[in-house]
Write a structure and sequence with these properties.
The protein has 2 domains: 16-155, Nucleotidyltransferase, domain 5, CATH 3.30.420; 157-267, no CATH class. By secondary structure, the chain is of the alpha/beta class. Helix 5 runs antiparallel to helix 7. It has a 5-stranded mixed sheet, sandwiched between helices. The chain has helices at residues 52-68, 88-94, 120-135, 150-155, 157-182, 230-234, 238-251, 260-267, and strands at 19-26, 30-36, 45-49, 75-81, 99-103. It is elongated, with a radius of gyration of 27 Å.
């Protein structure tokens, strides 16, 4: 029994003589568009700049070519893989009468040989087969992503911001704990409120400040170069980085829709 909102198969009958099918292999600066045009024996392939206006002009030109061969196009279906560009192009195409789909990349079947050729042209062939199977109504041929509206995408931002903060906190805390363990400090928990006293930590041997031994241990920061001053070098320290990070989260917690640190204390996610 087919589900009411089954993104894995099409509920519209495919009439291939009146349907223009196109897939897009997208990159940062260019789009490779492959099409199946009724009436043409060949499958056209066109490389465009990352320009939506050029894309819609290409689709209209292919529709005119199909009309010359006696095939009146009543449906245009375009698909591309989900990726960095998100869903804006799908919304833009749908607003102009084009049936747009976003395919989950992991649902497209590809050869599993150890050494297989991988080019944009071959990728478009895989996408065409996946889209054709979906339009024919074949179950589990490929999976389509639900295309959200712009407001729905904005509504997801708080959760994404919180996940980003959690990831940053975990990364910095792990680096700090590794640095402190190297100095013989094991019982200190950086995520507790007492972490405001980080600068007062002393090593068991010599009683020196732990902060000066942890410089350069923050994620994405290396040891200071000889040209850097003392202040620049200190900015790369794990302890200083964590303190600044926590202050920023407390100050900008409303970006994530709630006070992240209050959430972390209540839910126990901040426990080391």
């Amino acid at each position: 029994m087919q589900k009411a909102n089954d993104l894995g198969r099409s509920s519209t009958v495919l009439e291939q003589d009146s349907t223009l099918i196109a897939v897009i292999e997208m990159s940062l600066s260019s789009w490779l568009v492959a099409g199946i045009v009724p009436g043409l024996d060949r499958h056209p392939l066109k490389k465009l700049g990352a320009d939506e206006d050029a894309l819609i002009q290409l689709l209209h030109r292919w529709r005119e070519e199909a009309t010359k061969f006696g095939h009146a196009i009543t449906r245009i279906a375009v698909a591309f893989e989900a990726g960095r560009d998100g869903f804006w192009l799908a919304r833009w195409l749908r607003a102009r009468g084009v049936e747009a789909f976003v395919i989950h990349a992991t649902s497209v079947a590809v050869p599993r040989e150890h050494r297989r050729a991988k080019t944009d042209r071959l990728d478009t062939e895989h996408l065409k087969r996946a889209l054709l199977g979906r339009l024919r109504g074949e179950p589990n041929h490929c999976q389509m992503a639900a295309i959200p509206s712009l407001d729905e995408e904005d509504a997801r931002r708080p959760n994404r911001e919180r996940e980003n903060l959690v990831s940053q906190q975990t990364s910095i805390v792990n680096r700090m704990k590794a640095c402190l363990a190297r100095l013989g400090i094991r019982k200190f928990k950086p995520t507790l409120r007492q972490s405001k006293q980080l600068e007062t930590l002393r090593t068991p041997e010599g009683g020196t400040s732990a902060a000066q031994h942890c410089r350069g241990d923050a994620p994405g920061h290396g040891p200071p170069s000889p040209r850097q001053g003392a202040d620049q070098g200190d900015r790369g320290g794990s302890i200083t980085a964590f303190a600044g990070f926590r202050e920023r989260c407390e100050r900008d917690g409303q970006i994530a829709g709630a006070d992240y640190w209050r959430w972390s204390r209540n839910s126990g996610h901040a426990r080391a």
